[in-house]
Design brief:
Blueprint: E1 2-3, E2 6-7, E3 9-15, E4 18-23, H1 25-31, E5 49-50, H2 59-65, H3 71-81, H4 88-95, E6 103-104, E7 116-119, H5 122-130, E8 154-158, E9 164-168, E10 175-179, H6 190-203, E11 211-216, E12 219-225, E13 237-240, H7 241-244, H8 256-262, H9 265-274, H10 280-296, E14 308-311, E15 317-319, H11 328-331, E16 337-342, E17 345-347, H12 353-362, H13 367-385, H14 396-408
Antiparallel strand pairs: 1-2, 1-6, 3-4, 4-5, 7-9, 8-9, 8-10, 10-12, 11-12, 13-14, 14-15, 16-17
Helix pairs in contact: 6-13, 10-13, 12-13
Pfam families: Couple_hipA (PF13657), HipA_C (PF07804)
Protein name: Iron permease
Family: Belongs to the HipA Ser/Thr kinase family.
């Protein structure tokens, strides 16, 4: 396992699908004993971290699982590589040279390299994206990169001439391309309204991923610029909230039982992350702003895989930009959940300003700061949502958004 070009750990499988991390002397020399630059849940140390039986006993597996895709994409990836979907070691051996963040996995004896970018013809890109989740790769190409999540997606490199390239040998990808979901259960206008929501977030002064909607052989797709990549092709490290708390992606939705037993998941995250931020109060304000945005925008899928942290080389922590945020509740009323427990609430329709303030107070924010943050975000998002046009066919989002805001007495109307 490599991080920022440093060999920081050796990953092995001492038991069937149980994993072990042994940190290197280089990791301790460069980053220091106890450094949490890889994951808040995996501090560097002289003692190996080993998965064990029982709840919460598989921290290495949880971290690795957070780097790999789920669902159809995982099955197609495994099939194309000739391995099983549950064999994380073999999956990462094949595609781990380009993962989320700055972490890389390479077979023993190999070192990171700049890799190469395979030039793709327009018809190759169109087929690659339009046929997902089936991988119709360019001739001679094999899967090279890994990104977590259940949505079908591919990682490509934007070239200076406007064409796309296929990253090979650990080359840095620059964009995520997510085509419109297929099938009868798919949420209509999902990618178009995700682009709209990201535009609203940026217009409201919140950090949000840069997105665009493009067509590939007639299939619309969301093109997302990676926030964990620099303009000059460098890597920034990040992890999602599940990884930071040592949770398997299967537990991405917080349960009431978990909240009652351990306390609010957002509160626990704030506790471990804010103290490592350059400005702890600013981190809590940023977290509250993101949670408020997802609630008032009707994002019924704001679980722990859809929030992330940026981890600096010195261990400094900041909240990653908003991503995977769409007004799904306004598109499909089945999706009303908050993803995280917010002051005991689990439905967007039941969360009000007081709940958001009370939740933030439990993280250590002063009541005045929390209330001012919530009201400011509400007002700015209201203005932005009414100044940016919705995509054709999704105009009902505006009516449903306004109806909920009036019903909840939120700032804006």
């Amino acid at each position: 396992m490599w991080l920022y070009g440093h060999r920081v750990a050796r990953l092995t499988e001492p038991g069937t699908y149980r994993y072990k991390l042994e940190f290197t002397d280089e990791a301790l020399d460069v980053f220091g004993q106890g450094a949490r630059v890889l994951s808040l849940a995996l501090p560097f140390g002289t003692k190996a971290v080993v998965d064990k039986s029982g709840a919460g006993g598989r921290p290495v597996s949880a971290f690795l699982e957070g780097l790999l895709p789920e669902g159809n994409l995982r099955r197609h990836l495994a099939a194309s590589l000739g391995v099983t979907v549950i064999d994380k070691l073999e999956l990462l051996r094949a595609v781990g040279a380009e993962c989320a963040g700055a972490v890389q996995f390479l077979p023993e004896g190999e070192e990171p390299s700049a890799g190469t970018i395979r030039e793709l013809a327009d018809d190759e890109v169109n087929r690659l994206v339009a046929d997902l989740p089936t991988y119709h790769l360019p001739e001679g190409a094999v899967p090279q990169a890994s990104l977590a999540g259940i949505q079908d997606k591919v990682l490509l490199v934007a070239r200076p001439d406007g064409s796309w390239g296929w990253p090979e040998g650990g080359a840095v990808s620059s964009h995520i391309i997510k085509p419109e979901p297929l099938g009868g259960a798919a949420v209509p206008h999902l990618i178009q309204t995700e682009h709209w929501a990201m535009s609203v977030g940026r217009s409201a002064g919140l950090g949000a991923a840069q997105t665009a909607v493009e067509s590939f052989d007639g299939r619309s797709a969301l093109v997302v610029a990676r926030y964990d990549r620099t303009h000059d092709g460098g890597r920034l490290h990040q992890e999602d909230f599940c990884q930071a708390l040592g949770l398997d992606p299967d537990a991405k939705y917080e349960s009431t039982a978990e909240s009652e037993r351990l306390g609010s998941r957002l509160g626990r995250l704030a506790s471990v992350a804010a103290d490592r931020a350059i400005d702890p109060q600013a981190f809590r304000v940023d977290l509250l702003s993101a949670v408020t945005f997802n609630v008032i925008m009707g994002n019924g899928d704001a679980h722990s895989k859809n929030y992330s942290l940026l981890l600096g080389r010195r261990g400094e922590v900041s909240l990653a930009p908003l991503y995977d945020s769409a007004p799904v509740m306004y598109l499909d009323p089945r999706f009303k959940g908050t993803g995280h427990i917010i002051n005991g609430r689990t439905s967007i329709e039941s969360v009000d300003e007081a709940d958001l303030v009370a939740e933030a107070r439990s993280w250590g924010l002063a009541p005045r700061v929390a209330q001012e943050t919530v009201r400011s975000v509400m007002a700015r998002v209201w203005d932005a949502a009414h100044s940016i046009d919705l995509p054709p066919g999704a105009e009902q989002v505006s009516d449903k958004l306004e109806a909920l805001w009036v019903r909840r007495h939120w700032v804006g109307p």
